[in-house]
Design brief:
The chain is of the alpha/beta class. It has six helices and seven strands, in the order E-H-E-H-E-H-E-H-E-H-E-E-H.
Length: 171
């Protein structure tokens, strides 16, 4: 399967997909922040990458690369209905909460402030509504009494590194 990955930041999930899904070929990684560390990861891994904030350009790139599935791994922008219609049922997103709880930004902080005893991560199909597509699979993470945003974020990232390849490999 030919994968396209969309990143906005560090790219740890992007690199994890590369290592944990060797039977799938990441043919393009698109990033939308010029300082995204994901770019350096792509260069080191020999994977084509492109900086773009233009959705029409991203659509054209994914079509040109004959992408079978798009994985949003830390993509921090909502996509349009047009984007979703171009790739129906082929876009998944990784989100750091047990959806439908805590959609959007600051999900880890929201879970801590709410006094939750557990949180986790979700992989879901993407729609034009923020974090509202059908959930494919989730992984729970306990919230420990002394957890901070940073420690809980690290624990959730470990769960993400397990969950996302599991879902991709199931397709």
């Amino acid at each position: 399967m030919r994968l396209g990955v969309m990143c906005s930041g560090n790219g740890s999930n992007f690199e994890n997909i590369h290592h944990a899904c060797p039977e799938h070929d990441i043919v393009l990684m698109v990033y939308n922040k010029k300082k995204a560390k994901a770019k350096q990861r792509a260069e080191r891994l020999g994977i084509s990458s492109c900086y773009s904030k233009n959705e029409d350009e991203i659509i054209a790139l994914f079509h040109a690369y004959n992408i079978d599935m798009i994985v949003m791994a830390g993509w921090m922008r909502i996509v349009s209905k047009k984007f979703c219609e171009e790739f129906p049922g082929k876009i998944i997103n990784l989100h750091p909460s047990l959806l439908p709880k805590y959609k959007g930004l600051h999900a880890v902080e929201q879970a801590l402030k709410a006094g939750e005893t557990e949180t986790g991560c979700s992989v879901h199909f993407v729609t034009e509504q923020l974090d509202s597509g059908v959930v494919i699979k989730q992984q729970t993470v306990p919230i420990l009494p002394d957890d901070t945003v940073e420690s809980l974020t690290r624990a959730i990232q470990q769960a993400e590194h397990y969950l996302l390849p599991l879902v991709i490999n199931a397709f």
